[in-house]
């Protein structure tokens, strides 16, 4: 069984998080372990929000952080709660950096069905899978994203 599991969180697909937590609980089993969460804020990539004031950006970040923490506390049993962090940057880089800090036994990452763009650009799940220092389980859902 696993002792430490990292789950990247996506607020656009919140419905995947409880599924990932349920799988994490199965993987931990009756052992003592921790489920860690990480959400990556991509708002400053390519300076996408250059026309928004600094105060509005900071307020939005704080609201996002509160939403992520609430989602984590809602679905992860208290006894299994590890770290839950909000990081800035590119998703796969930030997830891999977080994995370097918490040293999980496994990363559970959700992935949608591949489309043409993922063949050309690659997905975050694929990059995490290729570069992680631990096992990575990819969770699929029935509906396309």
From TrEMBL:
Entries under Pfam families matching the protein: Usp
Residue ranges crossing the lipid bilayer per the database entry: none
InterPro entries per the UniProt record, alphabetical: Rossmann-like_a/b/a_fold (IPR014729), Universal_stress_UspA (IPR006015), UspA (IPR006016)
Superkingdom of origin: Bacteria
Domain annotation UspA: ranges: 1-140
Protein family membership: Belongs to the universal stress protein A family.
Protein name per UniProt: Universal stress protein
The species this protein was found in: Oceanospirillum sediminis
């Amino acid at each position: 069984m696993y002792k430490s599991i990292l789950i990247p969180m996506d607020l656009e697909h919140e419905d995947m998080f409880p599924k990932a937590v349920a799988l994490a609980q199965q993987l931990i089993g009756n052992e003592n372990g921790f489920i860690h969460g990480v959400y990556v804020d991509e708002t400053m990539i390519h300076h996408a929000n250059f026309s928004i004031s600094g105060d509005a950006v900071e307020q939005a970040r704080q609201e996002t952080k509160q939403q992520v923490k609430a989602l984590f506390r809602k679905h992860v049993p208290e006894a299994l709660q590890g770290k839950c962090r909000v990081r800035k940057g590119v998703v796969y880089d930030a997830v891999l950096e977080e994995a370097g800090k918490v040293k999980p036994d496994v990363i559970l990452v959700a992935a949608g069905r591949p489309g043409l763009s993922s063949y050309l650009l690659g997905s975050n799940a694929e990059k995490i899978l290729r570069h992680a220092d631990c096992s990575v389980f990819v969770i699929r859902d029935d509906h396309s994203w």
